[in-house]
Every structure is written in structure tokens, then in C-alpha cells.
Amino acid sequence: MKSAVSALVLGLVASSSTVSAEPVRWTTFSIPQTGTSVDFPASIFTEEAGRPDGYGQRFRTADGRADLTIQAAPNVSNDSPAAFLAKKHPPARIQYKRTTPRFFAVSSYKRDKVWYNRCNFSSGLIHCVLLNYPASEEREWDHIVTRISLSLRNR
């Protein structure tokens, strides 16, 4: 289970997609076992890319340049978002970090990718979205990342 929890924060996969000029088609992905749900751009993340530890699904773009993981796992130590994040020893050069009593969101660069991770905490579970996308397209991804992040819900 420790590996599942580590994957929530640091197991960020680097792949992914071009943000196209066509309208984005959004849908809701739900994890019935945990009550996790999130809006995601199904017209961008068109391919399933396996299952993460715990519950959920990984998606990627057809060209493999971006990926999205929607995941939930037990909070076995009943950590707060700040304590959980501190235990994972995130990279020192995090560009963005916000921690509240109910969630954390962190983002930074890894090689030529931007990675973003948000996890909500509730009822003994950690509900997360993890994204990786080309740093050269950061501005084009901003609205997509924001909508995904703000739509993350749990029961």
C-alpha cells in the first residue's frame, strides 16, 4: 500500500497530447468503489493507459505526449494533506504548492513536462488527479488543468 500512496504523489508518468483548436468534449469519470469523480477532456485523453495502484484509471493522448491519472487509495495513516505531502518528500523545486485541511495541489517541471497533482482527503481516502503535459504548451493547458482540478469530487 505504501507504493500506492507514493504513486499518488511522486509516481508521475511523463507522456502526452497537443491541445487542439477543436472544441474539447468533457465527460465525467467516476470510481464507484470510492465515490471519486472528476470531469476530464475525453476528446484529448482518448486512450486508456492501465490502472494505477488503488482504484482508478490512467489515460493518455493518442500521441502519448500527455497523460492523466484519476486515482483513489486508502489513507492508511489518516494523514492530513500537509502531513501526507511532507512524508513523500516532494522535489525541492516545486513551482506551485497549496495545502489546506482538505486537499493539496502541487506542480512543477520535470525535464520537458509540467506535472500537476491534486489530492482531496475524505473519509479515510485520498482522491487524486495527476497530469503530465508538455511544458512548451503550458498556457494552452492552464484552463484544462484548472477545470479538472476544480471538478475533483468525492462522496
Q: Walk across the major sheet and give the strand order.
A: 3-4-5-9-8-7-6
Structural class: alpha+beta
Q: Quote the CATH topology.
A: Protein Transport Mog1p, Chain A
Q: What's the number of structural domains?
A: 1
Strand content: 35-45%
What is the count of helical runs?
Answer: 3
Which overall shape is indicated by the principal axes computed on the Cα atoms? globular
The top-level CATH class is Alpha Beta
How would you characterize the overall build of this protein?
It is a single chain. The protein is an alpha+beta fold and about 160 residues long. It has one domain (about 1-150): Protein Transport Mog1p, Chain A (3-Layer(aba) Sandwich), CATH 3.40.1000.10. About 20% of the residues lie in helices and about 40% in strands. The chain has helices at about 1-10, 80-85, 140-150, and strands at about 25-30, 35-40, 45-50, 55-60, 65-75, 95-100, 105-110, 115-120, 125-135. The chain has a seven-stranded antiparallel β-sheet, with helices on both faces. The longest helix is centred in the C-terminal third of the chain and has 14 residues, at about 140-150. Mean pLDDT is about 85; it is low at about 1-20. Keywords: Signal.
